[in-house]
Design goal:
100 residues, alpha+beta, six-stranded mixed sheet, 1 helix
Length: 100
């Protein structure tokens, strides 16, 4: 389960047995949400938020901050997805300390 980013104490990660579409989990304080990054013709078309079965959704402010982050870093999230799941590369956590 590589943690790929940390932003405002929100952890962004993949589970090691993921499936398409490309998505990233965002968790804080035991709550978790998923951001699906929908791609068409090699371009990001949209980002959808969904709940994780058995987990409480991120709080409203954390969900907003996570959404802003995913919107800004979507290309990098997709690149890390490909590196991890296709090329089997190790992913190091990047801590983003500046508010977006």
């Amino acid at each position: 389960m590589p943690k790929i980013f940390e932003y405002l104490n929100i952890a962004f990660f993949f589970y090691s047995n993921e499936h398409e579409p490309v998505h990233v989990h965002a968790a804080k304080g035991g709550k978790e949400s998923v951001f699906e990054i929908l791609i068409s013709q090699s371009k990001i078309e949209s980002i959808k938020i969904r709940k994780v079965r058995g987990k409480e959704h991120l709080d409203k402010i954390d969900l907003k901050n996570a959404g802003i982050f995913v919107e800004k870093y979507a290309d990098e999230i997709v690149k890390k997805w490909i590196d991890f799941f296709v090329y089997k590369k190790e992913i190091k956590t990047e801590i983003i300390s500046k508010r977006l």
